[in-house]
Amino acid sequence: MKREIMMRVHSARVYNGGTYGLLKLVPVEGILPGDIEPGQFVQVDVPDCKGAFLRRPISVNFVDYEANELWLLVRAAGKGTRSLIACVEGQQLSVILPLGRGFSMPEKGGRVLLVGGGVGVAPLLYFGKVLKDNGYVPEFALGARSAGDLLMLDEFEKYGPVHVATENGELGTKGFVTQLPAMAEDIAHIACCGPTPMMKAVAKIAKARGINCEVSLENAMACGLGACLCCVEDTDHGRVCVCTEGPVFNINQLKWEL
Amino acid sequence: MGTLSVNIGGLELQNPVLTASGTFGYGEEYEDLMNVNSLGGIIVKGTTLLPREGNPGPRMAETPAGMLNAVGLQNKGVDYFIDHIYPRIAEKFSTEIIVNVAGSTVADYEKVCEKLAPLPRIRAIEVNISCPNVKQGGMAFGTTTAGAAEVTRAVRKAWPKTVIMKLSPNVTSIVDIAKAVEAEGADCVSLINTLMGMAIDVERRRPYLSTITGGLSGPAVKPVAVRMVWQVAKAVGIPVIGLGGIASTRDALEFIMAGATAIQIGTANFIDPSISEKVAKGLAEYCAANGLKSITEIRGII
Hints:
heterodimer; A: alpha/beta; Elongation Factor Tu (Ef-tu), domain 3; Rossmann fold; B: alpha/beta; TIM Barrel; 16 strands
């Protein structure tokens, strides 16, 4: 069930000189809804920001039910997200959650690879945790431009082996995630989130090798509730809202030319 | 009769707050977040004779104090609405359900009206002659007095209950259009639909919208809407429903003072999903605080 709740910034930190921010939010009253799933997103009202009129859709980075915390990892992409990153401890934000359809649980047995690029690694952290809790051994393949853009590696390491690639070669394999040795081995299931060209490259590999593959889209949204029909994507069942039918789609549902 | 009850061309509303077509889905999208039945009514998504896929993405661009959209009347068609959506929402909601009707030809409008007419819970239609995002029909009808009159005449014959004509602001004289639809028997007018606009991504050297131009909504358009409501309310005898950037009780009061009998909340639903319920409550509080027996006491006082 969707809810609008007021949340307080419990802690805020920035990465890479303010290019990214991690907000840990706690509900002002009560406890976090128990039905937040990996791959879902929230709509955050940006406080006191002249240039941001609409809420900002942000994927769920992590849910720490013991600490009653929701984590949001945000890239400074524009005025709204910059304003979110600038939030300080104690500040209150209106958040609508949980929204959309998240990642599905893979079939047991095969190797599960969570592939992330840039800030797209965000939803894979909570998915990795839930997979581990359910007896899977997820592996992470994370890529970014430089070492400074590889975020939260210590957190990912808690839930499975982490393979990294940087475009400038500062850390891990030089190049894209698709060039990681971990991508060349047998894989049964991929969950992927990152820039569209990167997701398409991963989807192409998955399709060629018959790997079950889900991707998380981020089409521009207004309502996030399935009412305005702004964020549509063409699929095998027509033009659908990414905010309600997604953001996670199986690549077989999409009309991508691979 | 309650303090807030109003009559829009034969249809009695428990309060003047409606939700604008295309911003509130079928009400179900918001039911977790607010009490839909607290409203005067909901106006559901533009409904056409045949299913429409709408325009390709991207369909949305944020602009200063507003947004552009280029949805293009995506809907599953009137038959799907009647068979699958209406039974569900008629059962769920006790508030008025108004269907926004759109078409590419005059015959389309007529046929949709004929199909909807037997539904007992649909007691009013809002006729969209003002969508800026479709190539045929839509705004083409709403930008000439002859076109607006022609659609009104046809709909008037096919629909026995309340007819609301939704007007476009993208005209030289919205007053002339309003008078033309009144003369053909419209019970009510609603205004304004979105203002045609455009925005360019200078880094990519491309328009943000797939259709290049789109419809501007949000607080950015509010002063234009208030002005048009004031002009039209002075010029016609039928009730005026005001919309365009309403995001607070104060905004709603502005439209009512300018002459609106009822108001619609649109884009503000995206930012605060329970804003419509809050405005309905806010209007009741305003009446109580100012000793009004009826909200109509302040209607058109400017």
